[in-house]
Specification:
Blueprint lengths: L73 E4 L5 H9 L4 E4 L3 E5 L4 H12 L4 E4 L2 H13 L3 H9 L2 E4 L2 H9 L13 H9 L7 E5 L6 H9 L3 E5 L2 E5 L4 H12 L4 E4 L2 H13 L3 H9 L3 E4 L2 H8 L5 E2 L6 H15 L2 E5 L2 E5 L3 E4 L2 E4 L2 H12 L5 E2 H7 L6 H19 L5 E4 L3 E4 L7
Parallel strand pairs: 1-2, 1-9, 4-5, 4-6, 6-7, 9-10, 10-11
Antiparallel strand pairs: 3-8, 12-13, 13-14, 14-15, 16-18, 17-18
Helix pairs in contact: 3-4, 3-5, 8-10, 9-10, 9-11, 13-15, 14-15
Length: 438
């Protein structure tokens, strides 16, 4: 799995610096060297060796199951089926979830193509049946029952080799009273294809249950090997009825308002890319996924449209929603957090919140953007002109100057303890990461 590097190195605490007349901090001139690192929350080291119970990094919870493992992070969920269940898995770990259904499943029980494919299976013996999804196979059996063909199709399939792609498909096969022949360890259509191509397919009749879109390469490879392939279209993926949540998620990903987007099907990935393309934002979305926004996919089939475009993805070892949630709960705290000490206080900067001495404090977008910019060069002065560039919106110079001051004020209020963010007269602001004893 590909994981982006930590955003910033950790920092050692140091004494509070002296103050200039008027209460402003003294900032020595000249080069400002890089800061050494300190252990992250939960690691054994001095007074910070024990995390508080119930907060990120607490030793009483594993990283994947801690109730606040995802606190401070925002995750977009594109799933349609079981999205409430998946969202609950993330929210239980403290995440803020943005639901943006990308696609909808449309059954085709009345579709003439499915009926024609079923009759073609009944017209002559079928040697192999590739079952790509459990919901698709169940839908096929239900449609056959509605046509009065249930007993005939079950009898026909009982004499074929049934090849479920994964455990859900295998469960649907067994629920229909049928015996499965083989399931690929990787749960991928590619491995099923290679399994079949390793045999003599000349003259064999192979039924392939589609999973919402054509399996063109799969089918063509079998036909080229001499098989007679029957494509069984049980349902189709169509764009979700209300496209506005997905369009908003595209914008949020590009602006960095979400830390990760989770995908549970390849059609959902394509739907988001298509929504971005319709707005002229596909390249910007791809750039976001290659940069700060994590693309999390339930499996390699789902990830394919992104990996083909050079997007790094994270995915669990097993294609399950629970495993995907655990992967996010492990990856984001390890790779999406900046840890440092400023003004004598330990900070853990997350997506939309900061942990200050084990106290989680959500921040509005503007103060958070300023904090992240300051944390890119801890202890260094960042000019107001630089901070203007990270503020949301495109305000004019004068209004932006005021916006920076307001963002700093709100940031200090949100952080709580005084002395974390320092004003450097006529120059800008900095995080109080001190250098007096170097």
């Amino acid at each position: 799995m590909t994981a982006p590097p930590d955003l910033m190195p950790d920092l050692l605490p140091a004494p509070t610096p002296g103050l200039m007349p008027g209460g402003l901090p003294a900032v020595p001139p000249g080069p400002q060297p890089a800061l050494p690192s300190v252990p992250s929350f939960g690691q054994a080291s001095g007074p910070y060796s024990e995390a508080a119970p119930g907060v990120p990094g607490s030793p009483e919870h594993s990283p994947e199951t801690a109730p606040d493992a995802l606190a401070g992070f925002t995750i977009g969920v594109t799933a349609t089926r079981r999205r409430e269940e998946f969202s609950a898995l993330l929210e239980r770990r403290g995440a803020r979830v943005v639901q943006a259904p990308a696609i909808r499943l449309v059954p085709v029980a009345e579709d003439t193509e499915l009926l024609a494919a079923t009759r073609e299976c009944l017209a002559a013996p079928v040697d192999d049946v590739v079952v790509t999804t459990g919901v698709g196979f169940r839908g096929w059996m239900a449609a056959a029952e509605g046509w009065g063909l249930s007993s005939e199709i079950v009898a026909r399939l009982s004499r074929a080799r049934l090849l479920p792609r994964g455990p859900k498909a295998r469960g649907a096969v067994r629920a229909a009273g049928l015996a499965d022949h083989w399931t690929p360890p990787t749960e991928s259509c590619e491995e099923v294809k290679q399994y079949l191509l390793g045999q003599d397919l000349r003259g064999r009749r192979v039924a392939v249950q589609l999973h919402g879109e054509p399996l063109t390469g799969f089918v063509e490879a079998l036909r080229a090997a001499g098989a007679q392939v029957i494509e069984v279209p049980v349902y189709r993926w169509l764009p979700y009825r209300d496209p506005s949540p997905l369009r908003r998620l595209v914008t949020q990903a590009i602006s960095g308002s979400v830390d990760a987007v989770a995908f549970t099907s390849a059609p959902a990935v394509l739907a988001m890319l298509n929504a971005a393309r319709a707005e002229g934002l596909e390249h910007a979305l791809i750039a976001a996924f290659r940069g700060p926004v994590v693309a999390a996919c339930v499996g390699s089939v789902t990830a394919a449209p992104l990996t083909e475009r050079g997007v790094p993805v994270i995915q669990p070892d097993r294609s399950r929603l629970g495993a995907l949630a655990r992967t996010l709960a492990r990856h984001l705290p390890e790779n999406g957090v900046t840890r440092l000490v400023a003004g004598g206080h330990r900070l853990e900067i997350r997506g939309h919140a900061v942990v200050v001495d084990h106290d989680l404090k959500p921040l509005p977008p503007a103060p958070m953007a300023v904090l992240k910019r300051l944390a890119e060069r801890p202890g260094h002065v960042v000019a107001r002109s630089d901070l203007r560039l990270v503020l949301p919106g495109g305000a004019s110079r004068d209004s932006a100057e005021h916006a920076v001051e307001m963002a700093i004020t709100r940031l200090r209020r949100g952080l709580g303890p005084a002395g974390i963010v320092e004003t450097v007269v006529k120059r800008g602001y900095r995080l109080a990461c001190d250098r007096d004893e170097w």
